[in-house]
Every structure is written in C-alpha cells, then in structure tokens.
Amino acid sequence: MGITVRQMLRIPELNRMKVVAGESGLDTNYVTTVTVLDAPDIQRWVHGGEFVITSGYILKDDPDSLVRIIEYLSQGGMAAIGIKLERFLKTLPPNVKEAADRLHFPVVDIPIDYAFSDIINPVLSRVVNAQAQELRFSEKVSQSFFELIMNGEEVEPILNNLRNFIHVDIAFIDTFFGQSYFCAQSDAFVEIIKETNLPQLIREIPNRPVAIGDKIYGYLFFDVDAQDIQKSWGISLSHAISALLISTQKKLAKSEAEKRYRDEFVQDILLKNVRFEKEVWNRAQLFNWDLRGPQTVVVVDIDNYKHQFEMAKQIDEAVANLEEIKKRIYYIATSMIKMKFSNIPYAEMSDSIAFILPSPFTEYESFKKKLYSTISLMQQEVAKKTKFSVTVGVGSIKDSIFSCYQSYDEARKALEMIRKTCGTGHVIFWKDLGVYKLLGNLYNTKDAVNFYYDYIGKLIEHDKNKKTQLVGTLESIVRCNWQLKAAAEELSIHYNTLKYRFRKICELMEFDVYDSEQRLNVALSLKLYLMDKYLDK
To answer: Which residues are paired to 280 by β-bridges?
Structure first.
C-alpha cells in the first residue's frame, strides 16, 4: 500500500518541504515509489503511486503546461508532484493551484538545496519499512482468520476477530440463509440493521458485499460514515470476507447434505416407500421429529412454474432466475409455517414443497383456522417478495404417519382441482371438496367421459367447430346458481348477450332449465369434463 503523502512529508529528512496546493489529497494519495520528471510526456513512463519530483527546468518556458501534467498524473494514479519552485518557476501559477486543489493532487515545494537522492533514499526506505510492516500485519491477520477456519468457527467469532482489527461495530446479513449477525456495542446500530430493509441498508450504510464473482452471499455493514472507511482496512476485510465465504460454503454443504437426506426420508413416507416401522422411527430420531399420533399433509405448489420455462427466450438465464425464485418461495413457506408448527418434516419436490403437520382429531376447526391463517399470510408474502402465486392443498388427517401417503395424494388432487375450477392462488382442504372427493375416483374413467358427453358433448363440439365459448358460459351460470344476471356480471358481458347464449345452450342440449334432475346432471357433467380436461395434464 505504501505511505500517505502526509506521512512522507513527516519524514525528518524532508521536513523543509512544503505543500503549496492540493492539500485535500494528503491523506488519500499513497506513495509507493519516487520518480523524476525530465520530459513532459511522463504519463508514458509511470504506473501509479509515484511521488514525481522535478527541478522545473522543462517547465520554465511554459509554466502553464504544469496544469496538463498534473491532470495526466492525477488520472494515472500518481501520489503527488514535488517541484523546486525557487530554481526556475519562482512561483506556482494560480491556474495550476486551482487544478491541483480541484483534483485533490498535492503539489510540494522542494527546497533548492535538496538533491534528488536526499528525497529518494529516505522515501524508499520508509516505503519499504511500511510494506514490511504491512506484510507482518497481513500475516498476523491471515493467521488469525486461518485459525478460526481450521477450528470450524462460524460467523460470530469471525466478526469479533474483524472488529479487533478495524475497531468499529459490524453487522453481517447472510442473504443466502436469511440470518443476521452482530458484533456491536451500539444498540441503535443493531436496531437500524434489524428494522431496515436490505436495499435501503445497502444505499445508506457503508458496506462490503461477501461474494464470489456475481454470486452474493451477504453484506458486511459498518457503523461509520462512508468517508471514514480506511484503506488500511483492506487486508482485514479481505481475509474476513474469505473466512465468511468459507464458513458459508461449509454451512451450505452441510445444509445440502441434510436437505438431501431429509427430502429422501419424507418422500419415502409420502410415496409409501417405507417397509419397516423401525426404519421410520430411527430415521425420524436423527432429525428429532416426533411422528407419533395423527398427521396431515400440506402441499404448497408454485403456480405456472413450468410454464415460465416455455416462455423463456434465454433458457440458461431463465433456469437460474427461476431456481432462485423457487428457493426464495421455499424459504418463505418453510420459515412461516415453521413459526407456527415447529420442528416438522418437509420435503422439496419438483415445483412444490410438502409438509407433514401434527394434527388433532378433536380440535380440528381450531387447527384448520390456525393453518388457514398461516397459509394465507405465507401466500401474501410470496406474492410480495417474488410476484409469483402458490396454490395450497391440505389433505385429511390420518391416524398414523404410515397413512400420510393418502393425505399427500388428497392434498395434490385438491390443489389441482381448485386450480382448474377456481384459478390459482387458493387454499383448499380435502375435507371441504364435497362432491369432488367422489368424482376424484371417477373423472378419468370411460363411464365418466360417456356421462358428461351425453349432456354437454354437443356444446363441446360446437365450441370446437365454431370457436364459441358455450361451455365456459354454462360453467359460469352453474357457478352463479343459475342466476343469469350474476353470470353476465362475472363474464363481463351484456345481460341480453348472456340470454342469447343460454337459449343456444338449451337448444343444443335439449335442456329443460326447470328440471332439477337435469340441472344436477349438467352440473356433474361440467365438473367431470373440467377434471378430465385439466387434472391429468
């Protein structure tokens, strides 16, 4: 890193040199070497960090050219320029001083009796000493973080170690696991981090991302003003960030292994792939799960997830984005459900996540109310954070973990039925499905197809051949309890238009609207048709 210009000027051998312009750069510009200016095109021969010294001879006929030289040096990352003003220039032109002040580039007056070696030798000696000290400090920092990593320490000890070197309060927000950590004495700082959303924190509080390439795992926040972040922190921050990344990667590997084993176990239960009772109890004990007593299954399914792949133009980018969204949805679902039902089994499927919840037979309504409220809040949070919606199916309560596969099947069927009959973003309990529970075992049979074709087959063919919407119109009329005005409002069409369509429907079906038996058959036919059309797709 070198030494600052101010530190250079404090070298005893250089104490007669005076700053005549650009004082604001004394503490921000670092000197790593010294070079001599003997040609106006010096920018071709420098690399950055130089203290450029000159007798001023090349400037005596054109003092104003120093403005251009200072601009070149500043742009090239030089530290400062030293000039023997008394020898050839006598004084510093005002426009040169203005440029140096504007660029925060120090201009130093070198006494006429100083030889260049009187400057070069002590500066390089001090720089080498500073670099050696920096190397010793870097080794000390590196060793301290290395020991933490080797001892398997996690985030808190790493933050404590970093604070020992930079001496300010620190917070780390782990965006991957959704956790916050603090090493701070200021309660106000902790409160701000806890209560402020992440984008605002990034805008308003000095921070450093903890990242590998474009993949950000979190942010370090510091309780200082932005201008107070020191370059000397660089070594400590670099090692701390590396340690945090290693800690995160270890936690990620552990989490992935646990997730894989957990998913396999829960999927075995839900797909009826367990053969021995003892196997279940032994595997459950590893996760400290109590699987005794009645249980029910909740399935949270992401709406239109696979459809997004079909719509994607850049498939690689789409996969990455959708996977990230899916992880966020799963995180929201698990964290919110586990707030109300702690330490529960769950497994991630393709585009859904299934939970096994302990469920009381005797207080079902209270349990249902609690679960419905939790799911509704979760759906709102998913929509807010991801712009996606989820449909949720809840199976019936089973008296044993070994019957949960039935509850899982019910939850899957329930959410597909509600999605295709009422749209996305709903919550449905198998117990509330009514006649659909009966039709669920019939809808895809030959007899069911023959039944609904006898009643609405002519409408289906008419829609197909004439590009009309008679089946959809009839569906709305049935849903509105055969009230034509209500159906017209639901379909956003004129009442007379609906009456015309309904007459056409009655003619094609040879339907007597006042016959309750025919109404029942038509309603059942519609349900069977919609289930057959959508549920197995």
So the answer is: none
Q: What mean pLDDT comes out for the span 398-408?
A: 94
Q: How many beta carbons lie within 10 A of that of residue 449, not counting itself?
A: 15
**Fold entry, domain 152-252:** Beta-Lactamase (3.30.450)
Burial call 302-338: b when 16+ CB within 10 Å, e when fewer: bbebeebeeeeeeeeeeeeebeebbeebbebbbebbe
Pair of tokens at residue 298: 């909740």
What is the fold of 272-433?
Answer: Alpha-Beta Plaits (3.30.70)
- DSSP character at residue 398: B
- Strand (E) positions, 359-445? 390-394, 427-429
CB 382 within 8 A of CB 418: no
Q: Of all residues in the chain, what percent are helix, strand and coil, respectively (each to 5)? A: 60, 15, 25
Q: Of 249, 250, 159, which Cα lies nearest the Cα of 208?
A: 159
CATH placement of domain 446-534: 1.10.10.2840
**For residue range 260-318, what is the model confidence (pLDDT) as tens digits?**
999 999 999 999 988 788 889 999 998 999 899 999 999 999 998 877 766 665 556 66
Predicted confidence (pLDDT) at residue 436 exceeds the cutoff of 80: no
Q: Which of 250, 253, 256 is nearest to 154 (CA)?
A: 250
Coil, strand or helix: which one is 335?
A: helix
Extract the tokens encoding 164.
């020992």
Rg from Cα positions in the chain = 37
For the domain spanning 3-127, the CATH number is: 3.40.1390.20
Per residue in 124-177, pLDDT tens? 999 998 888 878 888 888 898 888 888 888 899 999 999 998 889 999 999 888
CA-to-CA distance for 76 and 93, rounded, in angstroms? 22
Burial class (CB in 10 A: 0-12, 13-18, 19+), 384: exposed
The answer to whether 432 touches 521, Cβ cutoff 8 Å, is no
Strands (DSSP E) contained in 370-496 are 390-394, 427-429
Instruction: Spell out the domain ranges in the chain.
Output: 3-127, 152-252, 272-433, 446-534
